[in-house]
Every structure is written in C-alpha cells, then in structure tokens.
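User: I'm putting together a teaching handout on how multi-component assemblies are represented. Below are the sequence lines for each component of a complex, exactly as they appear in our records. Could you produce the 3D structure of the whole assembly as structure tokens, so the students can see both representations side by side? Please keep the chain order the same as the input.
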Amino acid sequence: MSAVINNVVSARGLRKGYKNKLALNGTDFDIPVGRIVGLIGPNGAGKTTALKAILGLIPFDGQLAVLGKDPRTQRDELMNDVCFIADVAVLPRWMKVKEAIEFVAGVHPRFDAAKCRRFLEGTQLTPGLRVREMSKGMIVQLHLALVMAIDAKLLVLDEPTLGLDILYRKQFYQRLLEDYFDEEKTILVTTHQVEEIEHILTDVMFIRDGKIVLNAPMDELGNRYAEVLVNADKLDAARGLKPIDERALPFGKTVMLFDGANPGQLALLGETRTPGLADLFVATMKGTYA
Amino acid sequence: MTAVEWSDGAPIYRQLKERVVAMLLDGVLKPGDALPSVRQVAAEYQLNPITVSRAYQELADDQLVEKRRGLGMYVTEGAPSRLKTSERDRFLREEWPLVLERIQRLGLDLQELLDPKGKWGAK
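Assistant: Of course. Below is the structure of the complete assembly, with chains in the same order as your input.
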C-alpha cells in the first residue's frame, strides 16, 4: 500500500515573489487528513498566496503535493476533490438559487443537488430568489450549501465569514461541523476572527513574512505556552526565565508569556493560565508593521 | 443558541467532561439516557469533534457512559454511585485544601461555619 496519502497537503520550500516582495519565502508545512487547520497571519503575510498555490491558481517555486498531486500540472483532477470559498464570494448577480444548484450539478461530478436543497431548508433562500436580492450573509449561506453538497476531500476557506454578522458567523461554523466535517475530510481556513474559531481548530499555523513561524496541534499549545500573572517582587526572577512577551497591568502586576518553560518554576512566580490564540498571535507578530 | 464560556485554565475537553459530570450529579442526565452525538455537541458548542470525542472517551474510561454499537453513548447504570465516590475524593483532594486555607486566613471557627446566621444574621 504505497499509495496511502497521509498528508492532504505537503509543502516544501514554497517560494512566490510578486514585483518587489516575497509572499512565500521557503514555506514548509504538512496538513494531515481529518484535521481542521487554521492558517493565521497579519495582512500581507502570505496566507492567500499559500491558498492560491494549493488551489493551483498561481505559478510558484518549490515542492507542493495536494492529495498527492501537483496543483501546477494536475489542477483539473485535483479540483474533483478540492472545494474553495474565497473572501470575495462571488456568484453571478442575476442567478437564482435553483439555477446555481443546476449549474453546479452540471459541472461537478461529486455534487449532490438533493443534499444542497436539504441544507437550504429552513433558510430564507427560496429557489426563485436571485443573488442580487440577497444579503451578504445569504450569499455566503448559499455558497456554503453548494460547497458542502460536494463530496470533496479538502475544503479551503479564505476569510469565509468576513463582513458577516455574528449570527451568520456562528451558523456558518455550526453547519460546517454538523453537516460536513468528518474524519475523512480536511478543512484549511484563514481568518482574522481568531477567538471565534480557536476551539474549532485541531491545528494552527501562524504565517509571517511568507514563513510558517508556528505550527502545532491546538492541544499542544497548552503544554508549550503559559501566561503568568507576575507580582512586582518577582519580576526579575520571571525575566530570568526569558518570557517571549510581557505587558504591565494596573496594580503592579505584569503578564508574561513563556514558551517551553518549566510549569513548576512558573507556578512559583504567580497565577498561570493557558494563553488564548489571540494572545499568542499578538506576541508572535510583534513588530510586523513597524 | 447556547453561549458557552470556556475558561483558560483547563483543556477544553476536560471542561466539557466536567459539564457532563455536573449534569450527572444534578440528575439532569440519568442512567440509560443518551448523550448527544459528537457531531451535535461539536456544532452547538463550536468545538472540533476531536475535542468532543476525547471528553466522551474519558467519560467512557471512567465507566460513566458506554458506547452502544450504532446508537451512540449512554449513561451507565452505575454512573451516579461511581460519580459520588470519585467526586468526594476529588473535593477532598483538590477543592477542600483551598477552602481550608481560606478559612484559616479569614480566621473563621467551626461554630461560625456551621451556623453563619448565629453571628451575622440574627440582628
């Protein structure tokens, strides 16, 4: 069984330069099957470029295998098994819901129209409704229903909930978890709404200046990183353990973030907790726009 | 929609497990009751299914729930009594020392603790 694919995506030394900037600068990463991976980075870090490379939408240098195929040369085959929702989720404005369903049924062999209609039950999307009559939230709802009805192995989401209100955002991930995701599917998602998805993710990758600077399963972050509320009298001792970030709080306390420090030692300094993804992100990306 | 606040202290799967344990202790879940599916819990609480499975697996390891093939997870007959024993142990081991420390710091005596109204309430 040499044909077993353990990694849905495997990238080595990805490079992509635009006019005067490297968007991907020797990027390495693997995405195993059955994971929900968040690719998180500041604006301009290379997120969308990485997704475009995976989808075969741009030329690039380096090695990249998606479901065992090279997106540069085997894009057509690849598209049978990969789905994509872009941050600019565009559907033709004149199109009706039922026409969109008929269209995808016509072009995609793995699309299940009945399933798609079932996903739309209970929404305000009626078969005769045109895209131009829909709110942004409704368009994303339709897009998601179309995509979830395709039996793809890899789903790529680029800022899928951008500009949606909190109800639509919550519903978006709820549908994805309830009606789509299983251990044979893999989801790669980029977003700035870090807090919103951190518990949904199984793995996280931070990208900065075209390089992956953090790549870890979510449950490992708790073992590796700790935030400590340090009392004023223990500041020097705490700094001796080389925090990767610190910020002062009122009442003389300081919050420090540690990477790989001994939990026993940290507990002596003050109250400890597991940092949220947003805290880690801010600490890791410090100076990005400087 | 259920708003759930997860604290930063313990891993999420453990917090989820504690939630189910609390429901068992309160009698909201009784022996023979079915647990919602992993998928339902994941969607409702916006957690990844691996986290939910892990919480369920620990509950199964503690023999509080059991898997019925093709049907899902069910609360076991022995769950309430098993829980009571383990929760008593845990309280004495983890929670009580902290409470005791606080009692001592505040200088409360046994009489005040058993009958707080005797001192403060009956004015």
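A couple of points students might notice: The longest helix of chain A spans residues 166-180. Chain A touches chain B through 23 residues (CB under 8 Å).
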